[in-house]
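Input.
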Amino acid sequence: MSFTDHVVLWLHVVAAIFTIGPGTAAIMSTSRYIRKRNTVVVGYLYRITRIYVLASLLTLILCLIITQLLHLFSKPWISTSITLYVVAFVLLVLIMRDQRKAIAALAAAERLGDGTGRSEEAQTATPTDGTPAGSDQPATTVVGDLKTAAIERGRIASMSGVVGLIWLAVIVLMVWNG
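Output.
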């Protein structure tokens, strides 16, 4: 391997460590804060996820460069690793979608009340849709929003586990064959 090959390989490893690791930690932490109904932290974790998922594309780009430099495209473990990365990337995009849905549901539940069913505005105001003031509509909406957040929490938890296993498989392929 030439000096350039070594530099690109080390950049690839550094990019993988500093982009994939923190991104994975953020997605795996998200479900905990959805359960705690902490919209601020979930929003922060969403922004972290978005930044690191986009930054992880650098890992893929450097992978393709080093693979081309070393003429390794014919190796099955390279094709498998690239395919696993693409699958993980798609799952990460789906996780970001679910994070946005959870943030919206938690924010809506916070606006309508604290989980008891009615905020002060809902108790005193007359809704414009013809339902009497103090009806169970806000309670139903809050419960529905919290249920939506719980569903998204489950999706995020399961997909983040799969993404973690995919990253583990890619690491094993890289160490075993590299």
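Residues 3-177 form one domain.
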